[in-house]
Amino acid sequence: MATEIERKFIPRTDNWRDGAGGVRYRQGYLSTDSERTVRVRTAGDKAFLTIKGKTVGASRAEYEYAIPRDDADAMLDQLCRRPIIEKVRYKISHGGLIWEVDEFEGENAGLVIAEVELSSEDQAVELPDWAGQEVTGDPRYYNANLISNPYSNWK
Amino acid sequence: MATEIERKFIPRTDNWRDGAGGVRYRQGYLSTDSERTVRVRTAGDKAFLTIKGKTVGASRAEYEYAIPRDDADAMLDQLCRRPIIEKVRYKISHGGLIWEVDEFEGENAGLVIAEVELSSEDQAVELPDWAGQEVTGDPRYYNANLISNPYSNWK
Question: Average pLDDT of B4-32?
């Protein structure tokens, strides 16, 4: 079991794009219950099953297992709740940390979320100049909630 | 992906016990949604994560992955829906097939279910003399439903 500690921001400019290479993600949920989410994800040619507990502060219990890509594709196509989330993830190094910027497609097109994973809740973070509003802990931005209430419904 | 085809019966006598050795199972659910159940199970010293789709006839899509026993114990203790199902499973050979007889404990104490796994839905099955009422397809007997509506509530 790992504990995930992360902070989330909405980019206020497109400067994060400079030189960043993206990987296509496709993910769906077998459970979107916030106390026990179960996610199926393909990332490039890899696939994972990930279980997360309830968020407490900025932390969350997480269990992740690699699974066959064929299994993940079949679960995404046949078992997961609709819609499936599709996005391109860019990894950007800044201030000694890796930022992941997710650019969503489909029903969440227009939404971009930047996340940085930390070792402790009080770790100092040097924000990149493109980082805008912080949305850590805002449940609307949980990927599991972008299924029941996608970004296209927010406006 | 495997497809699970099984028939279920309630034993009408205790004759199935003759010489059968049992293994303790502890299992809980991260999703009890019948279209996408997610089960955490420990069986003796092994542990598995199992995803099942909707039952169509006697068949059901199934994906199963071995996971570390420590992860399973932590998920059963902290993440799974209450109550956890505890049972002892006995494997009994009869007529060239393996029957699994589950004797439940806790909130489902008193319930015994015998299952036989088949290669096809129309496979002939030689019933043991202790097999009573068939309950294949009856949702009350799905393990996932024995959490929301345990056997102790049926009477």
Answer: 92
User: Which residues does chain A have with pLDDT short of 70?
Assistant: 1, 58
What residues in chain B have their Cβ under 8 A from chain A's Cβ atoms?
A: 1, 30-31, 33, 35-36, 38, 49, 51, 53, 61, 63, 65, 67, 70-71, 74-75, 78-81
Q: How far apart are alpha carbons A90 and B63 in whole angstroms? A: 30
B29 included as an active-site residue: yes
**Chain B, nearest residue to A60 by Cα:** B79
pLDDT higher than 70, residue B1: no
- Residue B151 · residue B23 · CB < 8 Å: no
d(CA B131, CA B146): 21
Q: What pLDDT is attached to residue A58? A: 66
Nearest 10 degrees: Cα torsion A120, A122, A126, A131: 90
**B46 three-state secondary structure:** strand
Query: A49 contacts in B (CB within 8 Å)?
Result: 49, 51, 65
Per-residue pLDDT tens digits for B91-133: 999 999 999 999 999 999 999 999 999 988 889 999 999 999 9
Longest dimension (CA), chain A: 43
Q: Is the pLDDT of residue B80 over 70?
A: yes
- Which tokens go with A13? 């400019």
Closest residue to B78, CB basis, from A49, A53, A78 = A53
Alpha-carbon span A84 to B137, nearest angstrom: 29
CA distances from B17 to B11, B24, B30 (A): 10, 15, 32
User: Can you tell me the ipTM of this complex?
Assistant: 0.78
What is the pLDDT at residue A1?
64
Would you state the structure tokens that stand for residue A39, as one six-digit string?
């996610």
